[in-house]
Write a structure and sequence with these properties.
Blueprint: H1 2-49, H2 61-87, H3 91-98, H4 106-127, E1 131-133, E2 137-138, H5 144-153, H6 155-173, H7 180-201, H8 207-216, H9 218-247, H10 252-263
Antiparallel strand pairs: 1-2
């Protein structure tokens, strides 16, 4: 009996050892694949850098010309909106925008957002040496995390994670640009990647209701997430590109094309 127990323990140990080894090998292979892929994209980004000043095709030329005005109007609108929410909005209006639909309260949400923003920004800076239009636009492989935080922890936490994560990334990576980074980049990343995604994908559903929806038709849910991420990414790219037109040497079209082409798919 004792011998059988020893053999069973050895067999169990060997199985766990093999599983662990397989996991390590698979993760190593994935890291190699990701590293090679991102290095190739980085090479492409260096080539695109020569096109950083290209103007929009004729059909979009009017947007190129209006980009500075769009950026300024957006900055003013965001400033007025933030001032209203801070000083004049009712408690109900604030709660409607920031409702988490989870057990997290406001303080817990802010703490979670601060920690997650730091981690997300650090991951972007350390694990994303992939220039698309250097030094202002880089591929952020872990951008999807913001949408996850928004869905799981709530829209307010998702927004704060995206906003502060962008600022952390810019500071750590050395690409902080005033007023673009805190006003445009942080705001639109938080709004469209964290807040918008949570509002559309999760809405007012409880976690149990959300899981039931996913289990009912996983592929429909995946398609929905992909479309929401695409729309959010394109809207974000449009306004962020307008801000880059004003604050950097990049044209609106070059920025919009680069972000829409490379960054939007990484949201999901």
């Amino acid at each position: 009996m004792a011998t059988q127990n020893v053999q069973a323990e050895r067999s169990s140990f060997l199985q766990e050892a093999v599983k662990t080894l397989v996991v390590i090998v698979v993760l190593s292979v994935l890291l190699v694949i990701v590293g090679w892929t991102t290095s190739q994209i980085g090479v492409l980004g260096e080539r695109l850098h020569a096109l950083a000043g290209i103007d929009a095709p004729p059909v979009f030329a009017w947007i190129e010309n209006l980009a500075p005005a769009i950026a300024v109007v957006t900055w003013v609108a965001m400033a007025l909106g933030a001032a209203y929410l801070i000083f004049a909005a009712s408690k109900k209006q604030r709660e409607t925008l920031a409702e988490n639909w989870s057990t997290l309260n406001v303080i817990q949400g802010i703490i979670a957002a601060a920690v997650l923003a730091g981690l997300t920004g650090y991951l972007w800076a350390i694990w994303n040496p992939v220039p698309i239009l250097p030094p202002f636009i880089h591929l952020r492989i872990f951008s999807f995390l913001i949408g996850v935080w928004g869905i799981v922890l709530g829209r307010a936490t998702g927004f704060l994670t995206g906003y502060f994560g962008s600022i952390v990334w810019a500071l750590v990576a050395g690409y902080f640009v005033l007023p673009h980074t805190p006003v445009a980049d942080g705001f639109w990343v938080g709004a469209m990647t964290g807040w918008f995604v949570s509002v559309v994908v999760r809405g007012g559903k409880s976690r149990d209701a959300l899981l039931a929806e996913i289990d009912a038709n996983r592929w429909r849910y995946y398609v929905k997430c992909g479309l929401v991420g695409l729309i959010g990414g394109l809207v974000m790219s449009f306004f962020v590109a307008a801000s880059l037109k004003v604050t950097t040497p990049l044209s609106w079209w070059a920025s919009f094309w680069a972000m829409g082409r490379f960054l939007t798919p990484c949201r999901w």
